[in-house]
Amino acid sequence: MQKRIIIIGAGFAGMYAALSAARLREAQGVAPEKLQIALVAPEPTLTIRPRLYEAKPETLGAPLGEVLAAVDVVYVQGRAEKIDTRARSVKIAPAAGRPHVLGYDRLVLASGSELFRPEIPGLSEFAFSVDTLADAIALDRHLQGLAVRPTSEARNTVVVAGGGFTGIEVATEMPARLRTILGEEARPRVVIVERNAAIARDMGEAPRPVIEKALRDLGIETQMGVGVSGVDRGGVMLSDGRRIESSTVIWAAGMRAAPLAAQIPAEHDNSGRLIVDRELRVPGVPGVFATGDAAKAASDDLGNFALMSCQHATRMGAFAGNNAAAELLGVRPVAYRQEAYVTCLDLGAAGAVFTRGWDRKVELVGDAAKKLKHEINTVWIYPPRADRAAALAAAEPVRVTDL
């Protein structure tokens, strides 16, 4: 009788979960007819989400159909709507036609995360983001359209709400993007609005001087200790009562697990992530694993936890897929570990900053860091080749992860 693993999501975690499950299936000499691995997603495409702050976002999707087919993973087109953990089934709504239900023996939830959008007046109507491919394309079209508008302070002003990793990368890319669109003679104004007292709070103190210098060199303003209280077609209101006239407001303040995680009857953290054990199982919910941005997992024995990043999602996905298959194949699962941790923050024309370790020790800055960031963005985070051996090898869960 055929058994089935369902993986929900075609992001970094979902892709590597599928490849890793297929890797173990082949290593154990089990035919796909005995153990089906099915990946459910609206499109067989990996969105290169870490690059959505860049221009030409329509180019930032990597097709997965060939690589999945190369390792005998079944692609199921549709959106997972309902998870029934008692019946071990998933209701799937296709793009066309009636929803259908697919049963599972093991489920890997890799549904990812989404931008947290609080109920601020006008935010949903007038603010842009780079959360999804569609969002980034909408922003890019809006920016291109600024060229036909009359010159004004508002037209030339971009407000970025959020001074974290995404907000900084969006903001530091903006001056060059706007000059390309509006002309080299344009004098764009970019303002970061951040509720915290310090920029890049989560990155710690070590890289902050590099980041602050880059912002100064690029002429980017920062408004610290204030938030956005309202957005309209002409600008933003700040929590201290001031107003900034702007035709472009970009929201980049906070992430939450995608809503599907809430359907799993288990403990969640404040970001909506499922609390998982060291093998990425969801305790108390038999047959269910969570991974990537849908899971809160300890990455080492020192009290560090995986972050909502592709760096962690790729490895977490490989462990989750392996362990889901391991349970069905009678193989010992592998505890998730990812002790190495690095960051590489793009700073636009000012270069980049690369840090290593949870204390964010700065190792590279400027052009050297920018070169590494380019390699990460254009090579390392893309899917493996649609070659069976290469794809399976890439999904080995236990391997050196240091750069």
The CATH topology annotation of the largest domain reads as: FAD/NAD(P)-binding domain
What's the total helix number? 9
Helix/strand class: alpha/beta
Tally of extended strands? 24
The general outline is globular
Q: Describe the largest sheet.
A: 5 strands, parallel
Helix percent reads 25-40%
CATH architecture of the largest domain: 3-Layer(bba) Sandwich
Low-confidence stretches: none
Q: CATH H-level name of the largest domain... which superfamily? A: FAD/NAD(P)-binding domain
Give the end-to-end Cα distance, rounded to a whole number of Å.
Answer: 43 Å
> For the CA atoms, what is the radius of gyration?
22 Å
Pfam families: Pyr_redox_2
Family: Belongs to the NADH dehydrogenase family.
Domain FAD/NAD(P)-binding: 4-317
Protein name: FAD-dependent oxidoreductase
